[in-house]
Amino acid sequence: MGNKSKKKNKKKKNYDSVSTKLIYSEEGQYYAVITKMLGDGRVMLKYVNGKNRLVEVMGIIRGSMRKRVWINIGNFVLVTERDYESGKVDIIHKYTDKNVHSLKKNKEITQELFDCSDSYTTKDGDDKIEASIDFIQDDENEYEKEYTEDIKNSVEKNVSSTLNDIETMNKIKDDEFNWDEI
């Protein structure tokens, strides 16, 4: 038998009410936005590097964050470039929406990053999918015309054969017809 008092004493922690300290970027650290999830703790992200260029690179979520912090497309994170490997950055912190708002208010995050995050997510956090479908009216109308003509022809053939059968039955007299054969 299990100990019921452990279950009663367990309470869910409300992490929203806990005030976290706002972490600003230091030298060699940059604010970034997640653009694509690659899996296995890897993501594609965009950030403005030290030369004021918008760069898209692969980011790797550090070990202690992997199972504790959930990162989605459109989230803002703090990254550091790798000295020994170019083209990859390490994600060291994820910002909440409140933190991002205060960073924007303090003009720490550039407008370019907000434009990147808007193009990848909606207000609900779902991915935007844009598709264009071109309908060709002429081909469909020709197909419909051919199809309806075929149907009309087959219906006319069925009706005419049925009428012929009825006429032949009407020509037969009752005396000539053998009801026992039916």
Describe this structure in words.
The protein is α+β, with helices and mostly antiparallel strands and 182 residues long. It folds into 2 domains: 23-120, Nucleic acid-binding proteins (OB fold (Dihydrolipoamide Acetyltransferase, E2P), Beta Barrel); 137-171. The chain contains 4 helices and 5 strands; from the N terminus they run H-E-E-E-E-E-H-H-H. The protein has helices at 4-9, 97-105, 111-120, 137-171; strands at residues 29-39, 42-48, 54-61, 76-81, 88-94. A 5-stranded mixed barrel has the order 1-2-3-5-4. Strand 4 (76-81) and strand 5 form a beta hairpin. The longest helix is centred in the last third of the chain and has 35 residues, at 137-171. It starts with a helix and ends in an 11-residue tail after the last helix. 11% of the residues are buried.
Average pLDDT for all residues = 76
Identify the quaternary structure here.
single chain
- Helix-strand pattern, N to C? HEEEEEHHH
- How much helix is in the residues? 25-40%
Number of helices: 4
Distance between the termini: 81 Å
Structural class: alpha+beta
Main β-sheet, spatial strand arrangement: 1-2-3-5-4
Strand content is 15-25%
Question: Taking Cα atoms only, what radius of gyration do you get, to the nearest Å?
Answer: 36 Å
The domain count comes to 2
Low-confidence segments, given as residue ranges, are 120-129, 131-135
